[in-house]
User: What shape does this take?
Amino acid sequence: MRLLPWNDDIAVTVAELRGLAPSPAEVQKTAGTIVADVRARGDAAVREHTARLDRVDLPEDYSVPRAEMEAHLGALSPGLHAALEDAAANIRAYHEREAVAPWRATLAQGQVVGQEVVPLSAAGLYVPGGLADYPSSVLMTAIPAQVAGVDRIVVCSPPRPGGGVAAGVAAACALLGVERLCPIGGAQAVAAMALGTVCVPRCDVIVGPGNAYVTEAKRLLVGEVGIDSLAGPSEVLIIADDTGRPEWLAADLLAQAEHGSGAMACLADIGGTLSGPVTAACERLSAELGIAIGNVVVVDCPDRDAALSLSNAFAPEHLELHCRNARDLLPGVRNAGAVFVGEHAATAFADYAAGTNHVLPTGGSARFGQGLSVDAFRKRVAVVELDGPAAAALAPVVATIAEEEGLHAHALSVRLRAD
Assistant: This one.
């Protein structure tokens, strides 16, 4: 755990915080080789890389049968089944409010313009797994796709050591009615969804968090498939004043550090009163829970404005506000994937069941990016309607600009309709 004094050059502090994330060597080369191999050999390459990296031999048709998914759903404890249903209901209710509607408007020359909102045909969802089980990531990625009206949803999740996918992932797919689930992970899964194979249908967009190889594969395939973002290690920044509860703050910091793989957690300590008790609480919980705190940092901030400036410069994935009149800080937040207002609003609530999405921009990309939404699974199609009088009224405007640009056929095209 580290303590950083306040530096008026906020960029220096941000660079120190960002430096905690690992820079994986050879990731680009390795992912590029796998993507190229899947492009050339399809499922044969997917099977080979899965056997090499995951030590699992995939059958000829490696998609998980629907009956197996239903069996996992039926095997859930009643408490977990009910919790997943409650989480799904909240996530669906949130995303249903994001939907953008088609519209039309008549402009000055009489032309009718507008847009249609069209769902994508096929969405690929990457759900991390391997030794872990993340049914929450199925809910977070599949539900907005369903709300958007996507026809075909494909889920890829790394295989378990004995084959198949994690039980909770399979159960969540059954709960939501997902038909296609494939026990493959890493760059080969991303390439299969982007390019299409016999077993994995080609997708129009790939969303969901993953490791450095998953992220690099998405980067390599941008342009051939849409993506949600290039997600990196998970992160939280907590702004707190002397009203903050050290035990709660420590638990929230460790909840982020628990993700491992470069995850980082930062406390912006307004007034410098919390660093001692929060450090003590973190060290105690670290020993109890077995969670490393090397990437947990406390920054001494002189006041609320300084803490907010640090946050906007850092652009955290998760921003928690534990201070007096926390809601008053919200209008000043420009860069954050999600904001948690008040000491009771821990990030963990939204990781699972509050309703908002947990697939969020990381690595500072909250400066320009946003969390996964229905928009990732829809496209807007522009519509233009003109009758004779509208064409006649608009043609001189278009022809004048087209002639200036030297595009004479453009000018002719509109003038013919003005006669």
In short: The chain has a mean pLDDT of 94. Residues 78-96 form the longest helix (19 residues). The longest strand covers residues 112-119. DSSP finds 15 helices and 14 strands in the chain.
